[in-house]
Each structure stands twice: as structure tokens, then as C-alpha cells.
What we know:
CATH topology of the largest domain: Immunoglobulin-like
Structural class: alpha+beta
Helix content: 10-25%
Mean pLDDT: 81
Order of helices and strands: HEEHHEEEEEEEEE
Number of strands: 11
Low-confidence stretches: none
Radius of gyration: 33 Å
Shape: elongated
Amino acid sequence: MNNGMIRTILPLSVFLLLASQTCAAEIYKVVDKDGNVTFTDQAPGDGTQPISLPELSVIRSETDPTPPPVESETVAEDNPPTLRELRGMYSDFRMTQPANEETFWGTANTVVVSWDSNLPPEPDMSVRLVVDGESQLATASGGVSLTLDRGEHKVYAELRDGRNRRITTTETVTFFIKQHSQNFR
């Protein structure tokens, strides 16, 4: 839109807004030295006469515009949350164990990996756990016990909805499994 068009539409919009008022106020059209048009209900004081506005047409509807109240349970069943809403609901999904850069000694190479969110997961949700680049499915709540080789490991979890769409992903956690060597007593 160019400036001339904006200068025409904006005052016209204001005019129509003011014209839609049901009170019988006087409306004045004021044009400044730059050609800008302003509509106001305040007399400019230079002897300007109010403009006459045409009467508004009003068409009454025979139907009630307010919809009947709907119970929230019905809405929840008919309209499940969108993917965007789920992402907002589970934005705090996080790894709770192990801590980043944690080292495990003498655990027979077994580590418990767990995740959580403040909001309990829906029954049809699942978690895709990715350990060292390999994924496995798990239930959405809780955690799993993993048996891994010694060394550095990276893990993260993806929360998935019933249609297997990714809702959110945790931060990647790096941890280490170390065992005492039998060569050193």
C-alpha cells in the first residue's frame, strides 16, 4: 500500500467507526496544511460546521449469536491438543538421570537412564531413547536400565505422541562408565 492510500483508508476507517456510534454526536472533518484528513467529535474552533452522516443500516438476526455452552470433557475428547499445544505442555521434558558429565564406577556397566516432566504423559505417548546414536522405544514415564561398555556415552530422549510425532527432545547428556582394572590393586 502506498502512503496516499493509507492516508485515505485510515481516516475513512476512523470515520466509519465514529459513524457507527449510536449516540448522536456531531462529527467534524478537518484537513490540515499537508492534506491529512481527520474526523473528530471536537469542534476545531475555526467555524467549521459538523458533517451530516447517513443513517446506518442495521439488520437483525433471528438466531442467537452465542453458541450453547459446551462441557470441557466433551471438548477434550473431540479436540485433542494440537502438536503445538503438546509442545507447550511438555516444554519441561528433561533427562533426570544421569547428570551431564557424571561418571559411574563399579556398577557392572549398568546405568539407569530416566526422564520426567511436570505434566504426566498421556497414555498413548512413548519415548524414543537414543543412546550413542542407536534408538530404542520405551514407555513415556519412568526410565530404563542400560548395560553399556566402559567409556563415554551420550543419551537423549524424544517424547512422542500416539501418532509417533516428536513432541519434544531433551538435552543430550554425556556420561562415563569406568571400571577398576584388575591389573592395579
